[in-house]
Write a structure and sequence with these properties.
With about 350 residues, this protein is mainly beta. It has one helix and 31 strands. Strands 24-25-26-27-28-29-30-31 form an eight-stranded antiparallel beta sheet, with no helix packed on it. Strands 18-19-20-21-22-23 form a six-stranded mixed beta sheet, with no helix packed on it.
Length: about 350
């Protein structure tokens, strides 16, 4: 025991090259400092060396890592970045701090200043960046305001991690969760087990939904809902490309404006089954008339031609009553119309 000079004078060395010290304890370290007997180094076990401060071990070096222990206050402090453990409601805190300027003369941060980054890397012939969690100021900081945003970035396939990756998710100072735009093939909001089905943003003010990598529906800022289509006229709030099957009752609360009701394509069938009992069909080759027929396609119930002011009503398959301008005529199949009443 004694000072370092006394220990060396007493020959307390191994082979003249190593200084031998007692194992010691946290309260009485084997290698301490004069006047501070409880501050020093202790040997705790094979491959383990501890540092004691004030009789308490605060650091332990082991063959597989370093333990830092302290009750209360900052555990590790490196340029004002530290782990903090105290009687806080949140428990242990990892604090990452940033200032502009220099360490000797720190300055104020500005909008967009990076405050800290947690970086994840993998080793393939050298460590390469895979993912990043980054914090930045999100607005103009001041004494009374420090707005922030949190960003999540991932390195895409084919990138060696030289950059900070591509931002995939952001939480801003307004507490909004912001996603990338995405595509129909890779929606921004999808499911782990079904990554090509979900929601994406094809353009500004447009939301779209995809399944199986293909767009199926979109909603725009004008309130237009498009199903199976990507464009429509401004007057169409609902645009469906393809057949529409309504299994239940369809109730129209307002008035159907005939100028806004457009029937196109093949026969329009009305009834509980695909066969009828009534359906609308074009009248012969006319482009202005339409017929209401029975499901057997032989009995004409009525024929309307609003363009040429003509109405035909079928009584039986072979008899019809025609109303044309200035005339009321009865007609039997195979015979010319017979005027029943004419008006000057």
């Amino acid at each position: 025991s004694g000072t370092l000079a006394q220990v060396l004078a007493n020959g307390n060395t191994a082979g003249g090259t190593a200084l031998l010290a007692a194992v010691g304890t946290a309260a009485l370290p084997g290698l301490a400092f004069e006047g501070f007997p409880d501050d020093g180094i202790i040997h705790e076990a094979d491959g383990e060396i501890g540092v004691s401060i004030g009789g308490t071990r605060v650091v332990r070096f082991r063959s597989f890592g370093v333990d830092v222990e302290r009750s209360g206050g900052k555990i590790i402090n490196l340029n004002n970045t530290y782990f903090e453990s105290d009687v806080l409601e949140s428990g242990t805190v990892i604090r990452l701090s940033r200032a502009k300027g220099t360490l000797a003369s720190p300055g104020n941060v500005i909008d967009g200043t990076e405050l800290g980054t947690i970086q994840f890397e993998g080793n393939v012939s050298g460590f390469k960046r895979a993912s990043v969690i980054m914090a930045q100021t999100d607005g103009t900081p001041s004494v009374s305001s420090m707005p922030g945003r949190l960003m999540f970035r991932t390195t895409p396939v084919g990138n060696n991690g030289a950059s900070l990756g591509v931002e995939a998710l952001r939480i801003n100072s307004s507490q909004q969760t912001l996603l990338i735009a995405g595509t129909a093939a890779l929606p921004a909001l999808a499911h782990i087990l079904d990554p090509d089905s979900g929601r994406f943003n094809p353009s500004a003010n447009v939301l779209a939904w995809a399944t199986g990598g293909a767009e199926g529906m979109r909603l725009n800022a004008a309130g237009q809902l498009l199903i199976g289509a990507t464009s429509s006229t401004a007057s169409e709030l609902l645009h469906v490309a393809g057949a529409v099957v309504i299994a239940g009752k369809l109730t129209v609360g307002g008035v159907i404006d005939p100028t806004q009701l457009l029937l196109t394509g093949a026969d329009k069938k009305l009834g509980a089954t695909d066969a009828g009992p009534l359906y609308l069909a074009p009248f012969a080759d006319s482009t202005t008339a339409i017929q209401v027929r029975k499901a057997d396609d032989t009995t004409v119930v009525a024929t309307f031609d609003t363009i040429n002011s003509w109405l035909g009503i079928g009584i039986v398959p072979t008899v019809a009553l025609d109303i044309v301008p200035s005339s009321l005529m009865a007609q039997k199949t195979g015979e010319p119309p017979t005027p029943e009443r004419t008006w000057p």
